[in-house]
Amino acid sequence: MKKMIALSGLAAAIAFSANVMAAEVNAIDIDTVTKIVETKSVQPNFPEMSMRANSEGAVVLKYDIDKRGRPKDVELVSSTGSKLFLREAVKALKSTRFEPVVINGEVVRVNGMMRKYNYTMVDERGNRVVAKR
Question: What domain range is 80 assigned to?
Fold first, then answer.
């Protein structure tokens, strides 16, 4: 199953010429010419130690998508909560896959993608669990 990812609305404010042939394109520009298609979505594990400690948090990662559709050059933008969340988020992102991005018949690298992983405690119905301390 393929999953479409909507990119930032900021791209509408940036002018991008569809006639430019480039080996790379910035994520903020891509929304005007194509969509990013995720072909393999991998969700991070919630670390057992963090779960036992009722720890919650979030990780924001910046990354590029190479010409084969693989995340590359993963960088931490921000992180809250357990440091274990970062390890699991990076592992999940590096296992995620995308369709190669084609612009004007040329496969391009996409720079500057962002992804946020939220770590929250929820029950089997998806309701938020209040941590007991």
Answer: 3-119
3-state secondary structure of 26: strand
Based on the structure, what is the number of domains in the chain?
1
CA-to-CA distance for 8 and 110, rounded, in angstroms? Answer: 14
DSSP 13: G
pLDDT in tens, 30-46: 766 678 999 999 999 99
Task: Please answer whether residues 24 and 108 qualify as being in contact, where contact means their C-beta atoms are separated by less than 8 angstroms.
Answer: yes
How far is it, in rounded angstroms, from Cα 109 to Cα 132?
A: 46
> Does residue 131 form part of some domain?
no
CA distance 120 to 59: 12
pLDDT over 60 at 75, yes or no: yes
